[in-house]
Specification:
Layout: H1 2-6, E1 10-18, E2 21-28, H2 36-51, E3 56-59
Parallel strand pairs: 2-3
Antiparallel strand pairs: 1-2
GO molecular function: iron ion binding; iron-sulfur cluster binding
Protein name: NIF system FeS cluster assembly NifU C-terminal domain-containing protein
Domain NIF system FeS cluster assembly NifU C-terminal: 1-58
């Protein structure tokens, strides 16, 4: 997944996992991008397909 995000100048970092909640931080070109929500949704769909279980991907604010 990171490869596709990096292709647009962004990146994604795993921050934490709590039960079925996966916290990620989008960085680079993804910060402030209007399509960041679509990216989070795509990450969630791919993770659910790979894990075979429902998960919720939650974006975490970038560090300043």
């Amino acid at each position: 997944m990171r490869r596709y995000i990096a292709g647009d100048g962004g990146d994604c970092q795993l921050v934490d996992i709590e039960d079925n909640k996966i916290m990620v931080r989008l960085t680079g070109a993804c910060v402030g991008c209007q399509l960041a929500g679509v990216t989070i949704g795509g990450i969630q769909m791919r993770l659910m397909a790979k894990l075979g279980a429902p998960v919720r991907v939650i974006p975490v604010q970038p560090r300043h």
